[in-house]
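Annex B. Sample input.
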Amino acid sequence: MVLGAPDTGWWWLGFVGWLPWLWAIDGQTPRRALALGQLAGTLVMFGTAIWMTNLLERFAGLSFAPRTVVHLLFALLQGLQWAGVSYTIAWLQRRTGRSILLLAPLCWVAGEALAPHLFPTYSALLWCWHPVWLQVADLGGVTMVGAVQVGINAALYVVVRDGFRSGVNRAGLATLALLLLGTPLYGAARMASADAMSAAAPHVRFGIVQGNHGIREWSRKSTRPAVLFRLQAQSAVLESQGAEVIVWGENAYPHRKVLARSGGADFPESDVQRIRRGFQSPLVFGAITADPAASPYAWNSAVVLAPDGTIGDLYDKNYPLLFGEYAPLVDPAWYLANVKGASHINAGLGVSVLRVGEWRLGPLICYEDILPRFARRVVNADVHVLVNLTSDTWFGSSSEQGQHLGLAVLRSIESRRAMVRSVNAGPSAFIDPSGRVVRQTTVTDPDATGAPTPVPDGFVVDVPMIDPAHRTVYAWSGGLFEGLVLLGLVGLGVRGRLR
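Annex B, continued. Sample output.
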């Protein structure tokens, strides 16, 4: 399962990766299945999210031993999903006599839908670069992809198991054939439909700017002008290539707490804090904004700068990163004083739309692009395109960046909206409404010892502006699929008890 993550490219392990786990828990007592599931989940999460150790070194300054312990605790917490799913499968097997062929995919969906996560993880990540297998997400969301994956594995498992024991498992063979043939056929049809819709839609040329600045350069007052200059220079280059809208990354604008949160305009030409220099296109950029009269703490915002220099719409990040951008249950002042690199920001109060001319942009800041329920709310605010501003610089150059981008792919499929991502040190990307990563930049690590002088990157891309009224089944129904699965599992448990 670890080797199936996107940074390895062994995506085909998604067809067989669950087999050892299914073999281990099949027929076990619920308590033993719980322990085996916790072991499996912990190992999977420890290996897949090994980038956490790099984060803990940079963010909290932890040495090898303590950061390994913290990462192990993180893996144990994330592994609870596997433990809960394993326990439920074993419990329902004993209670109802139902086959693991039915129970495994249903329980997996329940686990992905209900498990609380610091960093949400979905098994669909294994297929993120092969979108033909992901298209069922427009029906039931990312968890329906997980149902297909575990369904294929469970069908293969019972076919092999019963082939050694008692002969052919016809239900398993039929399920395996249906999923292996039906899923890509549906995917190809839906991708063709999405491509036709994209071709017929009006297009806007977006310039995606990647400043390639690190946390250290962005944090020092003396080097902030250099960060801003590179963003401006790259914006001018992309505008000369035809960009009609420019996008900078999360917190890319290096001068903090200086912008008005409502109204206001760009700074004068003589001011070092001036946002626009050398280009005229409308700009969407990330900035730290503040209002001392409203709160002593700041907001992580996405801001529109109109061509006339006025500050337009503003969106505040709704989901600050736990421990990185806020700490629960403790005084923020104490937390900021005692944790290296920590910050505390106010959470936004809901979905907002960023208007650029006639176009309605759906903003997602940082890991909000891996939150399917929140992204659905953004899409249902009638937007033409999704815009993600991200900074993954804390993770260095690691597997985290690929996993983050891979999970973001599902948001485009679920909504049939293109997504443009500006990531401060990469990979910035353009994802089309079929879930293809059409363009992406290289990941850099500007904070690494001996890193070369940063050079900005970026590209111009034609982005289809999908009709804001368009809704997929998932955008319309939301958690209906997950709700039906949960209701079915409850029904199986109750019926088993009555019998």
